[in-house]
Amino acid sequence: MNGVVVGSWLPRLPEIRDRLGIHLDALGLTLALGGLGSLIGSSLSGVVVGKLGARRTAVAAGLAVYLFLPLVAVAPSAALLALVLAAMGFLDANADVGMNAVGVRVEEAHGRSVMTRLHGLWSLGTLIGSGVSALAVLIGVRFGTQLSLISVFGIGTALYAMRLIPDAPPRARQGARSGRLAVGLMLAGGFAVFVEGAPFDWSALYLVDVTGSG
User: Fold this and answer.
1) Separation between Cα atoms, residue 198 and residue 176, nearest integer Å
2) Cα–Cα 20 to 30 A to 191, which of 55, 142, 156, 164?
3) Are 104 and 125 within one domain?
4) Which one, of 65, 1, 78, lies nearest residue 38 by Cα?
């Protein structure tokens, strides 16, 4: 469901741009502020998961993301849209870390790798969200209605998941070697997100503005 949410609004970015009447530079800054929210959320997620536990963090932050989602369709200005995206990015980063922490515990309990399948399902969710968004445009469903329905479904999914997933207590602090490994992973992940983010954010606008697609 987390992937569905991400895929549900990015395909309609040209519509958001046209509704707000903003240029690409302002839209780029708006999206960047959403990314800044994710960065801040990721940096604080260890503290949040340590205090609330992985399950509570994943569910509570996920619920908040779904509640914010319909605001993407009705934000009256680029500045307010940037605040909504920043808040969603902050919350989504905490939900991601909580879900991954639970995934690690599931791997430990079963003695085999499941993380790649979990991330694969997230990718499948983005495809489903994008498909739902395209279908909504095709049959004339308003953007706000589409996001509201997805929000309701997401809230129900999170509440159901809360009853199923195990909690994950915080781990003890690791030594300097683990710290160096974490820095290396952070840099590798940062470059990967940089490469992934450009087509993720801009492909819908490229299709509409450059190729003339509907």
Assistant:
1) 34
2) 55
3) yes
4) 65
